[in-house]
Predict the structure.
Amino acid sequence: MAKSSFEYVKTFELDDTVLPNSWIVVRLDGKCFHKFADDHNFKKPNDIRALRLMNYSAYSVLREFNELLLAYGQSDEYSFIFKKDCNLYKRRAAKLLTIVNSKFSSSYVFYWRKFFGDEELKYPPTFDGRLILYPSQENLIDYLKWRQADVHINNLYNTTFWALVLKGNLTPSQAEKRLCGTLSADKNEILFKEFGENYNNEPEIFKRGTLLTRKCITDEESKKSVKIIADVHDDMLKNNFWQEFSGHLIKPKNLLAHKGSMTDMI
Ligand code: ATP
Ligand code: ATP
Ligand code: MG
Ligand code: MG
Ligand code: MG
Ligand code: MG
């Protein structure tokens, strides 16, 4: 086709190709989800339906893009990690960020009913997104540990806060005051002494978030090796969790036996 006289405008587009040979992380986060959670009657402090919908939406992203190595989610956020040598969209930042965000966001809406049943989706949710590069495996693992440390801190706080409000009959501001300046040990003690709750017995998915990872297993019937996406709720901060594979791939070392809803043939 002959070039039109308008085509020069294309030259205004800037190159946003990211550095080769580094891990690309895309992190999405729900916009104003404290309100979205209230508007949709999320159970406090953890609504399992919402976590499963987040996980399933992330799973549909992983299923679509083979260049994705791992994903990790907690609360209203999800991080997606592309393989180091990924060449999808020639590593253009805007393309990678937007395809991940739009696939995730549309899946969240598309699969809403699968997890929320009759609870009506009142308006379309919004997710923000950012793209970060990590040049070393150590940085990448520290990134994942950082996000998991975040869920631990928030979840212990929220679990104690909501126990004080829902079971201890404190107002939210009284509960906030009570927790001001407390350490982890203090919160564990409040839960145990005042409410007979052992924080360690909280579901792993609440305490640790969810890591989605690709895994090869042997199919029982055909005895063939098949690839699956597994969800893991393990402690990524412990020293022996990560194992190096051929210098540029990371995989969790000991995957828990998987029984969850996520596993699927890919
Ligand atoms: P921002 O737009 O800045 O991200 P936000 O309201 O989304 O604002 P976040 O720090 O992202 O703030 O926190 C997410 C909030 O969403 C939580 O504080 C909680 O209120 C709510 N939320 C997310 N997931 C769940 C869940 N599974 N169960 C209960 N509440 C949830
Ligand atoms: P890419 O992923 O590279 O964008 P693509 O198949 O989406 O690939 P585009 O150049 O974006 O290619 O073209 C969009 C195509 O979608 C059109 O060529 C046409 O086939 C189809 N399409 C989009 N909107 C309509 C429409 N309203 N009616 C019919 N076909 C449409
Ligand atoms: Mg945010
Ligand atoms: Mg948010
Ligand atoms: Mg958040
Ligand atoms: Mg197109």
